[in-house]
Automatic annotation (TrEMBL):
Domain Asparaginase/glutaminase C-terminal as annotated: residue spans: 201-316
Matches recorded under CDD domains: L-asparaginase_I
Name of the protein described by the UniProt record: asparaginase
GO MF term list: asparaginase activity
Binding site for substrate: 52, 82-83
Species lineage: Bacteria, Bacillati, Bacillota, Bacilli, Lactobacillales
Gene3D superfamilies for this protein: 3.40.50.40, L-asparaginase, N-terminal domain
Organism of origin: Oenococcus kitaharae DSM 17330
One of the protein's GO biological processes: amino acid metabolic process
Length: 327
């Protein structure tokens, strides 16, 4: 019988109706009443009470530190809002990349107290996952799907099947309280030098026809890292508004420019076209089949460890917590 620690952080799952709309409002005692402790002890910590839109990287650190400070539990379950759940799952995947116990994150599209809620099912599924999974890692459990934390992306705003596993197989499926493992991941903690630190001085921009090159000046002034959601397989314009020159400018200044694709599925092949090769030659660091949520969290984690551009490239292109190069 596993001993489970539940961290409550707010979100739709504990929201109630207020004058200005839904907001977290349930107490920890009200939430705990929906957890079945018949199959093992469950402890609860009301860690924070946030709409997940307000969740910040500092909150990921608080979650990871709380988990590490309670080592006597067999598994950990976090209730969380859906809007930034994928970012939190990715962030914890790096902050806890050496942690050898399962961490489960769940929430709901409809609050627990509403008649047609999905929260009760997700709580039961998450508990089953916490009690069944015998390998480490951070996992999102939602609508009967168990998804690796670095691969979860919210793809629907209202439907119960709100999360999908991008470019990676589902870890497990849960149906009628039957747990079926589909993919047993290996343990790959990667290079560990900073367990709890994050550097949030990064920006994300989506490439589009007509995008001005002026934002590169701002990034250089801020001495920040940049993630560009490129066109197609990694291409950026080099004719007219020359974004490739901007990539080269930042790279020569020692600032990392991560090149991903705004196309969610199937990753990127930056060498396929000339426009992509120019970006790579300018110093763009490719991100393979990673999703943006994982890239954001990994870059924050990496930049806390080093400011050396070649080291940043090496860590970003090293698979950690199943985040990269599955395709």
């Amino acid at each position: 019988m596993k001993k489970i620690l539940v961290l409550a952080t707010g979100g739709t799952i504990v929201s109630t109706a207020h004058k200005n709309g839904l907001a977290p409002g349930m107490t920890i005692n009200q939430l705990s009443a929906f957890f079945d402790s018949a199959e093992g002890p469950i402890d609860f910590i009301p860690l924070m009470d946030k709409d997940s839109t307000n969740m910040q990287p500092e909150d990921w650190i608080k979650m990871s530190q709380t988990i590490r400070s309670h080592p006597d539990f067999d598994a950990y379950l976090i209730t969380h809002g859906t809007d930034t759940m994928a970012y939190t799952a990715a962030g914890l995947s790096y902050l806890l990349s050496d942690f050898e116990k399962p961490v489960i994150i769940t929430g709901s599209q409809i609050p627990l107290t509403f008649e047609h809620t999905d929260a009760k099912k997700n709580i039961n599924d998450a508990l089953l996952a916490a009690r069944t999974i015998d390998f480490p890692g951070v996992y999102v459990v939602f609508d009967g799907r168990v998804i690796a934390g670095t691969r979860a992306v919210k793809v629907k705003s209202k439907s119960f099947d709100a999360f999908d596993s991008i470019n990676f197989p589902l870890i497990a499926q849960i149906e009628n309280q039957q747990f079926k493992i589909l993919y047993r991941p290996s343990f790959n903690p990667g290079p560990i030098t900073s367990r709890t630190g994050l550097n949030t001085n990064i920006y994300v921009i989506r490439a589009f026809p007509g995008l001005s090159v002026k934002f590169f000046d701002f990034i250089e002034q801020e001495k920040a890292a940049l993630i560009i959601e490129s066109l197609g397989n990694g291409g950026l314009p080099s004719v007219g508004r020359n974004l490739v020159a901007g990539v080269e400018k930042l790279s020569q200044a020692g600032l990392p420019v991560i090149i991903t694709t705004q196309i969610m599925n199937e990753g990127q092949d930056i060498d396929l076209y000339e426009v992509g090769q120019r970006v790579e030659q300018a110093g763009g660091i490719t991100a393979g089949d990673m999703n943006t949520e994982a890239i954001v969290a990994k870059l924050m984690w990496t930049m806390r460890q080093t400011k050396n551009l070649s080291q940043i490239k090496n860590i970003m292109q090293t698979p950690i917590a199943h985040d990269l190069d599955h395709l």
